[in-house]
Amino acid sequence: MYDYVVKKMWRAVHNSDSSAFEQFLHEMDEKRCEWDTSVTDHFGRTIMHAAVEENNETLVRTLLHVGFDVNSLEGCGASPLTLAVLNKNEKLVKLLHEHFALSCGPLFAKMPSPLAIAKAMELDDIVKLFESEPDSVEDSLLWQRFEGGHACENLVHDDEVEIDEVEGDGFAYNRSMCKACPTIIVGDNGTNKVCRGVRNRSMSAYGWCSEFPGDMHTKGYLCETCFKVLGNGGFHYMIHTVMKRVKVTQEAFGKKKFQEQNLSRIKEAVRDGGLAYGLAAVQEFKKSAYFPSESDLKASLRRSGSHNDVLLDACKKWLHDGAAEDASFRYHSELITLFAPLLDLYCSATKNGNGVSRETVWLILLPILIFVNSA
Questions:
Q1: Is pLDDT of 293 > 90?
Q2: What's the rounded Cα separation, in Å, for the pair 303 and 356?
Q3: Taking a C-beta distance cutoff of 8 angstroms, is the pair 70, 100 a contact?
Q4: Of 54, 65, 115, 139, which Cα lies nearest the Cα of 95?
Q5: C-beta atoms surrounding 235 within 10 Å
Q6: Does the pLDDT of residue 314 top 90, yes or no?
Q7: Fewer Cβ atoms within 10 Å of its own Cβ: the N or the C terminal residue of the chain?
Q8: What is the pLDDT of residue 6?
Q9: Is 171 helix (H, G, I), strand (E, B) or coil?
Q10: Which residue has the higher pLDDT, 148 or 115?
Q11: Residues 20, 40: Cα–Cα separation, whole Å
Q12: Residue 248 backbone phi and psi in degrees, to 5
């Protein structure tokens, strides 16, 4: 995708038509919501990370202009500013910093912040640039990123937070004036039961916490449901025998799914099984009468700059009609139309803290779990 965008950008830059670059910017603006966070490589890097890593200042400026997230994190926790510091590219560092890229703070929980890295690499000019910003500005930018600048308008600084006096029911702690930001405690049913218990006994002391359903157990149950539905139809044979995942046994999907690293194995099995079924489906789709003609593909390329729209519409119709006409087709296609995408969306939602996607997963998943368990 990075190579595609770069080529398109340079064609627009060198086009004799003065409106070509404006048209390119308009297209990038339309693609921003799709590409900004959801389109990443296997390391979790976005196109912004790729542009900074390649020291492509023109593309970085373009992405910033159309509103791409300057503080997006790749899988290891590195932001675009982190990569610019590691590359010792002071020009890009200054550019990102001017566009509100965070150089330190809670955003960098997995790895050192750009400021810490610059200090370790003895990049004095960059350190001076970062430290020239007062802490209040950095804090303000951080709240703008996570809360839109509205949820914590009454937030006070740490030195203004007061501890309440001892009350009759015990010690009371006023965590902060920001009531809209409870600390999320992630856990299974037992952990959440404990959190609810202590909070109900003393809201003044534990009202700052909010329980959240455990990710680990839900992913395990989703994989188990996939196995119960599709295991006897060839899915388990393909995983266990064809793909040589000998440790992915029936017990691993069932009673022992939370033991001996089985959760990771069965998640990978569903993911890779879905990919294998998906590749097979692509080959079948290409041979079907639903695959777009050469003229349809060219028309889509001229209209939108890619074949995505026409291919996706045709594939949806192929899947819909195939499922309606053939029960076997409908049964096997569930791995690529339901279970594998649902697991991938759930992992992505919990990794990136996307509440809307997580709610979508729950709405789809709950009736599936109820139906399979009752059956």
A1: yes
A2: 31
A3: yes
A4: 65
A5: 23
A6: yes
A7: C
A8: 85
A9: coil
A10: 115
A11: 27
A12: -85, 80
Residues spanned by CATH 1.25.40.20 within the chain? 2-147
CB 188 within 8 A of CB 162: no
Residue 52, amino acid: V
User: Which residues are CB-contacts of 165 (< 8 A; sequence separation ≥ 6)?
Assistant: 172
CA distance 113 to 322: 51
Overall size of the chain counted in residues: 375
Q: Please report, for residues 47, 74, 107, 109, the alpha-carbon distance to residue 82 in angstroms, rounded to integers and kept in the order given.
A: 15, 10, 12, 13
Burial per residue of 119-130, b for 16 or more beta-carbon CB atoms within 10 angstroms, e otherwise: beeebeebbebb
Residue 105 tokens, joined: 């703070």
Distances (CA, A) of 319 to 151, 177, 279, 326: 43, 52, 14, 10
This prediction has a pTM of: 0.45
- Among 58, 67, 52, 42, which Cα is nearest to 7's? 58
> The CATH number of 2-147 is which of 1.25.40.20, 3.90.1640.10, 2.40.30.20, 1.10.3470.10?
1.25.40.20
The C-alpha R_g of the chain, in whole angstroms, comes to 25
List of residues 6+ apart from 77 with CB closer than 8 A: 108, 109, 110, 111
**For residue 134, is pLDDT > 80?**
no
pLDDT per residue over 15-68, tens digit each?
Answer: 888 788 888 888 887 777 667 666 788 788 888 999 999 999 988 988 888 888
